[in-house]
């Protein structure tokens, strides 16, 4: 199987150097890297081009103007030629066995996607801790919305299954990954790799760390959840019309984090492990 590593890039060439190095150290060797640059500055693009020059496995495409992360990530998938795809943010990195550990799961034809544990790192990519919320989830639940962020990096998926979904919503400026996870969750079984395969960098320029963008992040997360409910033909959620719910992230989180819900979830997790 060929693996397509997908990188949506925007003014991140300096951080991408460590991402690049982690990719070329992969123990699984049948891969390509599809980079779509979202109209970065010329200096950033030149630094990126210089880094990947001479390695035919890295293919760079450029948006003709700044189009946003939704459009750019969607284009990444469309340009991929591999059987399996996985996004890596340009300021993050992979462990050396990330592709190998992921690709072997697809020997089971019922698996449509995989996800793993990941490390939270500082600005220098030094590991601080393991992300605490990743865990094995139960497949096929209409009321699973990843509200606890059980599914996260390193997320990989079959390209052929992706094409049976609506695809990435190109209008989204955040929550793009969450949208992708939920769409693929509806198409078959997801497999949890109980091992950290991804290094997630926390730095001041990161989107999730930008306080000015918190409101937009919340709005996009609401849109993703609302569209998920519509796809699953759920009009009433916890006895409330979804059109009357002002904040679906808060509403669902509150409903799924009552004491009873936590106990039931813990019992469910124990059953899954058996």
From TrEMBL:
<dbReference type="Pfam" id="PF00535">
    <property type="entry name" value="Glycos_transf_2"/>
</dbReference>
<protein>
    <submittedName>
        <fullName>Glycosyl transferase family 2</fullName>
    </submittedName>
</protein>
<dbReference type="GO" id="GO:0016758">
    <property type="term" value="F:hexosyltransferase activity"/>
</dbReference>
<keyword id="KW-0808">Transferase</keyword>
<feature type="domain" description="Glycosyltransferase 2-like">
    <location>
        <begin position="4"/>
        <end position="162"/>
    </location>
</feature>
<dbReference type="InterPro" id="IPR029044">
    <property type="entry name" value="Nucleotide-diphossugar_trans"/>
</dbReference>
<dbReference type="InterPro" id="IPR001173">
    <property type="entry name" value="Glyco_trans_2-like"/>
</dbReference>
């Amino acid at each position: 199987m060929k693996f397509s590593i997908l990188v949506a890039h925007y003014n991140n060439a300096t951080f991408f150097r460590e991402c690049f190095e982690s990719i070329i150290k992969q123990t699984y060797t049948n891969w390509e890297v599809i980079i779509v640059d979202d109209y970065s500055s010329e200096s950033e693009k030149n630094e990126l081009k210089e880094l990947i020059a001479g390695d035919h496995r890295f293919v760079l495409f450029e948006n003709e103007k700044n189009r946003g992360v939704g459009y750019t990530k969607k284009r990444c998938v469309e340009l991929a030629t591999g059987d399996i795809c996985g996004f890596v943010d340009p300021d993050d990195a992979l462990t050396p066995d990330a592709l190998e550990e992921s690709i072997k799961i697809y020997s089971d034809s019922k698996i449509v996607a995989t996800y793993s544990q990941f490390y939270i790192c500082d600005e220098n990519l030094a590991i601080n801790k393991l992300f605490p919320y990743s865990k094995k989830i139960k497949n096929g639940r209409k009321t699973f919305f990843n509200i606890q962020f059980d599914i996260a990096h390193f997320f990989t998926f079959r390209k052929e299954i992706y094409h049976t979904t609506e695809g990435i919503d190109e209008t989204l400026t955040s929550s793009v990954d969450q949208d992708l996870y939920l769409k693929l969750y509806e198409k078959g079984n997801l497999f949890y790799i109980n091992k950290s395969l991804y290094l997630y960098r926390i730095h001041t320029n990161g989107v999730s760390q930008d306080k000015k963008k918190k409101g937009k992040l919340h709005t996009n997360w609401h849109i993703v959840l609302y569209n998920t409910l519509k796809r699953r033909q759920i009009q009433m959620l916890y006895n409330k019309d979804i059109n009357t719910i002002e904040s679906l992230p808060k509403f669902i989180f509150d409903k799924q984090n009552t004491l009873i819900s936590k106990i039931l979830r813990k019992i469910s997790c124990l059953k899954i492990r058996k």
